């Protein structure tokens, strides 16, 4: 259980800057997900933490002790930071038990620690197998057990579920989360899958272009994203141009209450598709159904408002019968998040083309 | 690295000393032109034949439903176990009037087509069947798919095999000498051995080196251009097999015919001579003494080679970069240098620079190190790939220091490959002929040199025991090569 703090970490490979001053704090005993698109520097961040790479600037402290930066580089094997690589990377010449016991001293190896962590990942009794006799998911479980066994300060998980198929992934990530929690381990999970980050992490850190854009709980990052890009990256987003007057935003979807204190003037508002409800009555806006993507547990409905604005609504299936081309009426439930109008180029919404629907699925 | 370069540097220096006029006089003769034409012609003919034979056989045994294809795969790879000079000896002792360009081309082709077969078979096995399926689904016929997709998938493997064959033919000494095909290697040996014509031998060697360099750079150039062989992730799927139908009978006859020529002729011929040879009084102690000499010299050579290859191979595997490429190529160049040239330059090197080494087994060991360094570097680099850096990083993250990681992860994973490399170098050293002939200490005879001496005086029966023992020894590295190529792997799926 340890507290890890990175401040102003810079790492360059030749002319490419992978980390451009990343600041990050990993609270003890929690799982922090580092979320970002490919090439944002998340794997570099992990390699710097583990001690496989030297920093060009900045520093890393574990429990207040500096392990990297300022001319110091504690080698990987002295950091007590265990990694779980993408492909598991089990030692092919060692049995499961020997793999798990690799980081243990002789005495601990003979204790029941090996069996204990194997049980944590749901592989009790598999100690005698060889890695090639295991399925991909089982290999990843062993890799997690191996990292947990020596009770490291931090366990680093580098997209450990990305090579598995979707069904297996959900189960494994839940089990790994449980195993980390049961062992009281501090974890850092690197991933590009926002669903994975939001569902398992205590803290989500959004990384872009080698910088930390936002860090917070999954609900904070989803409900109060730092900017429109984060809003679109962590979930489906409807971004609309609006004008704020007396604490409410006038949008193509009608007048919507805004979250927090906002000064009057033109803004961009974020409405999540699940806030768009099919409803009748005063204030409801009529819309034409363009699209209906059925997902089983819910459905995304693409709508065109009277002024041509296109939006997306998420409905629980069976709520409403929708037919393509049909007319419905909608209103926005709850408050909308507001961003200053020209927060960043490209993210700005131009009134002539209507609002942007940003979604990562 | 210095070991690989010493002979080359020495060659350049000594040739330069001869003076420009003398070099030109030696160079611009009709004979050198003829030698060059004949050497290159032989290389071209043999390489073409080997590519046709090797790719065809590989396709038949890997990608068709040919009956008994695993047995055929082994049969097709076995000629590697027959050193060219033994094959030549076997043919000559069966048909004493056989000599010249075409017989040499035949013998060399039969001995070296496995150099194409093995890498191509491995490539065919590893190729992504989805690419062919996509091609078929886009409306290309089977033949169009074969030429447009399959042949391109195996192109790097074919090129690598063809390069090996071409270099092998250029540097071959035993077969061309026994079959009296006048090429550079034979001319160099004759110039040195009969006439003690040092300058002539050196100039001829230099020309041979230049030819070799041209071949190597040509191959590099074609490899660079548009070399992209994407293989996206995903599990390996078994390749589908082509149903031959009635065509399988002529295919089998062809394979049996090739195997008969490549293996049957030497086997029958050796067997006949052997029956006569062992009954000769005093044969056994002589054979044993020669075997002992072969053993010690090859052991020393293998030890020295591995010592040099370890850092080079690890460097090549771990830090790929321009420097590694250069090192790699230089080692190949030394490999492509004929044993005759290496032997010759080391003689001069021994006499003039390192006299204490001259006429000792160590100079011969040095020659082996120069000749077989590429083999060993390849083995070490391949073994290092068995222990990817990711594994070592995980081990370090689990709190193990560099030495412990080396002892518990890197070495256990790489030692089998390194050991196999050492065995390969050792056994190849046992077969080596020309450098051994030139560098062995006076009075020390190895299996290869005894065979040579007996053949030279037409004592075919006396030569047979040495030949048989050498074939038996050569069979071991061949087996290693075949096992590693994946030719013997269990089928990973039936025809689909």
From TrEMBL, chain A:
It is an enzyme of class 7 (translocase). InterPro entries: AAA+_ATPase, ABC_SmlMolc_Importer, ABC_transporter-like_ATP-bd, ABC_transporter-like_CS, ABC_transpr_FbpC, Mo/tungstate-bd_C_term_dom, P-loop_NTPase, Transp-assoc_OB_typ2. Keywords: ATP-binding, Cell membrane, Ion transport, Iron, Iron transport, Membrane, Nucleotide-binding, Transport. Pfam families: ABC_tran, TOBE_2. Signal peptide: none annotated. GO terms for cellular component: ATP-binding cassette (ABC) transporter complex. SMART domains: AAA. Residues 4-234 form the ABC transporter domain. It comes from the Bacteria. The keyword Manganese does not apply. GO terms for molecular function: ABC-type ferric iron transporter activity; ABC-type quaternary ammonium compound transporting activity; ATP binding; ATP hydrolysis activity. The keyword Metal-binding does not apply. Its EC number is 7.6.2.9. PANTHER family: SPERMIDINE/PUTRESCINE IMPORT ATP-BINDING PROTEIN POTA (PTHR42781), SPERMIDINE_PUTRESCINE IMPORT ATP-BINDING PROTEIN POTA (PTHR42781:SF4). This is ABC-type quaternary amine transporter. It comes from Micromonospora sonchi. The lineage of its organism: Bacteria, Bacillati, Actinomycetota, Actinomycetes, Micromonosporales.
């Amino acid at each position: 259980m340890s507290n890890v703090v990175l401040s102003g970490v810079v790492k360059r490979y030749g002319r490419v800057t992978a980390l451009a001053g990343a600041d990050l704090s990993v609270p003890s005993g929690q799982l922090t997900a580092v979320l970002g698109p490919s090439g944002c520097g998340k794997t570099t961040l992990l390699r710097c933490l583990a001690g496989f790479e030297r920093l060009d600037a900045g520093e890393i402290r574990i429990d207040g002790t500096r392990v990297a930066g300022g001319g110091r580089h504690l080698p990987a094997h002295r950091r007590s930071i265990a990694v779980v690589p993408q492909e598991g990377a089990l030692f092919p010449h060692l049995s499961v038990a020997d793999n798990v016991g690799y980081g243990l001293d002789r005495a601990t190896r003979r204790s029941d620690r090996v069996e204990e962590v194997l049980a944590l990942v749901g592989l009790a009794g598999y100690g005698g197998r060889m890695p090639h006799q295991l399925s991909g998911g089982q290999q990843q479980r062993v890799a997690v057990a191996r990292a947990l066994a020596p009770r490291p300060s931090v366990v680093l998980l580098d997209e450990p579920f990305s090579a598995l198929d979707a069904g297996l992934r959900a189960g494994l990530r839940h089990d790994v989360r449980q195993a980390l929690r049961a062992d009281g381990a501090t974890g850092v999970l690197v991933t590009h899958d926002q669903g994975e980050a939001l569902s398992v992490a205590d803290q989500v850190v959004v990384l872009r272009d080698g910088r930390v854009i936002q860090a917070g709980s999954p609900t904070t990052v989803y409900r109060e994203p730092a900017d429109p890009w984060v809003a679109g990256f962590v979930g489906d987003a409807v971004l609309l141009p609006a004008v704020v007057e007396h604490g409410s935003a006038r949008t193509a979807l009608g007048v919507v209450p805004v979250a927090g204190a906002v000064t009057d003037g033109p803004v961009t508002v974020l409405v999540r598709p699940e806030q768009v409800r099919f409803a009748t009555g005063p204030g409801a806006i009529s819309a034409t159904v363009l699209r209906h993507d059925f997902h089983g547990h819910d459905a995304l409905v693409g709508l065109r408002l009277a002024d041509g604005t296109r939006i997306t609504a998420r409905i629980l299936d069976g709520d409403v019968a929708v037919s393509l081309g049909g007319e419905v009426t909608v209103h926005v439930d709850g408050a909308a998040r507001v961003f200053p109008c020209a927060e960043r180029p490209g993210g700005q919404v131009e009134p002539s083309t209507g609002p942007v629907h940003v979604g990562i699925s | 690295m210095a070991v690989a370069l010493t002979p080359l540097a020495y060659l350049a220096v000594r040739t330069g000393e001869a003076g420009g006029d003398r070099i030109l006089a030696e160079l611009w003769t009709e004979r050198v032109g003829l030698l060059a034409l004949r050497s290159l012609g032989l290389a071209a003919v043999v390489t073409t034949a080997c590519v046709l034979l090797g790719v065809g056989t590989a396709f038949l045994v890997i990608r068709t439903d040919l009956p008994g294809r695993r047995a055929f795969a082994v049969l097709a790879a076995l000629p590697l176990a027959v050193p060219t000079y033994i094959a030549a000896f076997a043919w000559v002792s069966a048909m004493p009037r056989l000599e010249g360009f075409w017989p040499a081309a035949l013998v060399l082709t039969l001995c070296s087509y496995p150099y194409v077969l093995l890498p191509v078979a491995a490539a065919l096995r590893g190729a992504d069947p989805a690419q062919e399926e996509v091609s078929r689904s886009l409306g290309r016929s089977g033949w169009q798919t074969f030429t447009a997709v399959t042949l391109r998938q195996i192109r790097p493997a074919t090129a690598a095999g063809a390069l090996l064959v071409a270099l092998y033919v250029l540097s071959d000494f035993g077969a061309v000498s026994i079959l009296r095909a006048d090429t550079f290697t034979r001319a160099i040996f004759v110039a040195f051995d009969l006439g003690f014509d040092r300058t002539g031998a050196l100039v001829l060697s230099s020309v041979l080196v230049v030819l070799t360099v041209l071949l190597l750079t040509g191959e590099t150039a074609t490899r660079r251009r548009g070399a992209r062989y994407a293989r996206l992730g995903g599990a390996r799927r078994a390749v589908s097999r082509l149903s031959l139908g009635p065509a399988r009978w002529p295919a089998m006859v062809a394979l049996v015919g090739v195997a008969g020529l490549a293996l049957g002729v030497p086997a029958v011929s050796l067997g006949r001579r052997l029956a006569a040879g062992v009954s000769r009084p005093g044969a056994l102690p002589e054979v044993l003494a020669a075997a002992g000499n072969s053993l010690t010299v090859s052991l020393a050579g293998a030890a020295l080679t591995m010592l040099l290859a370890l850092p080079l191979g690890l460097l090549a595997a771990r830090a790929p970069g321009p420097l590694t490429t250069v090192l790699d190529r230089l080692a190949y160049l030394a490999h492509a240098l004929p044993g005759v040239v290496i032997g010759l330059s080391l003689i001069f090197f021994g006499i003039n620079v390192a006299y204490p080494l001259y006429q000792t087994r160590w100079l011969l060991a040095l020659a082996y190190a120069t000749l077989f360094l590429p083999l060993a570097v390849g083995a070490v680099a391949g073994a290092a790939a068995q222990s990817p850096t990711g594994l070592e990083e995980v081990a370090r993250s689990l709190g193990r220091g560099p030495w412990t990681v080396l002892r518990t992860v890197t070495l256990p994973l790489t030692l089998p490959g390194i050991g196999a490399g050492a065995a390969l170098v050792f056994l190849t050293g046992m077969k080596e002929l020309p450098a051994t002939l030139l560098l062995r200490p006076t009075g020390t005879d190895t299996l290869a040199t005894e065979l040579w001496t007996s053949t030279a005086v037409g004592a075919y029966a006396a030569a047979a025991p040495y030949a048989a023992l050498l074939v038996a020894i050569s069979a071991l590295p061949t087996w290693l090569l075949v096992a590693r190529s994946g030719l013997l792997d269990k089928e990973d799926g039936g025809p689909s």
